Automatic annotation (TrEMBL):
It holds the Pfam family CAP. Residues 286-373 form the LCCL domain. It comes from Galeopterus variegatus (Malayan flying lemur). PROSITE patterns: CRISP_2 (PS01010), LCCL (PS50820). PANTHER family: CYSTEINE-RICH SECRETORY PROTEIN-RELATED. Keywords: Repeat. The gene is CRISPLD2. This is Cysteine-rich secretory protein LCCL domain-containing 2.
Amino acid sequence: MRCVPSGGIPLGLVLLVCGAHGFFLPNVTHLEKLLSKYQQDEPHSRMRRAIPRSDKEEILMLHNKLRGQVYPSASNMEYMTWDEELEKSAAAWAHECIWEHGPTSLLVSIGQNLAVHWGRYRSPGSHVQSWYDEVKDYTYPYPHECNPWCPERCSGPMCTHYTQIVWATTNKVGCAVNTCQRMNVWGDVWENAVYLVCNYSPKGNWIGEAPYRNGRPCSACPPSYGGGCRNNLCYREQTHDQKPETDEMNEVETAPVAEDKHVWAQPRGSRPTKPKKTKTSTVTYMTQVVRCDTKMKDKCKGSTCNRYQCPAGCLKNKAKIFGTLFYESSSSICRAAIHYGVLDDKGGLVDVTRNGKVPFFVKSERHGVESLR
């Protein structure tokens, strides 16, 4: 894990929050039907991405169906359309056959859900449904429940696939499927693994926000929809002579420039513009209250981590941390924040996310806290 300070939240330990996470469904039956659908006829070192029109239509139809049936109801849920550029970027990443989110240059601008399986045929829609089914572990954060910070509302291992699917302002999706001859999935090598990548724009899963506004369907749609509503979704009629998207119109095309001192930067410039709110925004923040000795691995189980409220008095606590700039998962969340320098002994808010594997961790003493290794 790596810590990057944020200018927007003085007491925050901010790392790149992709709003996207991996998901897999293992299976042990035969592959013939599946491989005949996604493989090329001629031998190839890596099989090309193939997503039939029927799969595209199923993915898009299911996204909009699920978005229109959220509970509690959404007042600003937008109709989702298929985006060819998002499909191309998803195809490029699916061809890499890497069971991680990427590429890094796009993750500051897009949301991403991943799935992989092997064995009997599974339609892409079955994975989309599995992402949505995380709703069983999710509790919508009503503003009156925040006093002053909303708790993290997921009771299961993760809910961020679900929240990306139902993020109200995410109105474009593009997906790709690739059959990988050999793919490392959490330490196990899967042969002929079928890899699904779905990219979303504008990205969702912004820390401190609910996925949508609760209210009568279509009662808070953006003005650009002209009052249109279809199946509980903000909708505008599509015309055949619509202008094609340009680089300026599509957020995926232009990756923000990283900060000079940090490889992983908070995406300040790419965030969608929102109308100003009259109420304080603190009522929509979601956070988990942790202790000084709470470890990263206790709270970051296979997903992008979240926002944590650290108590005062962690400076003299004996909880261990490992590393400098990058912190090993058995480190104390709050003590790592102090060591990095974005929190002091008064406590405060910390944003953390997973940063993948690193070859080693550096021992140092900073701000009165000694790290090991």
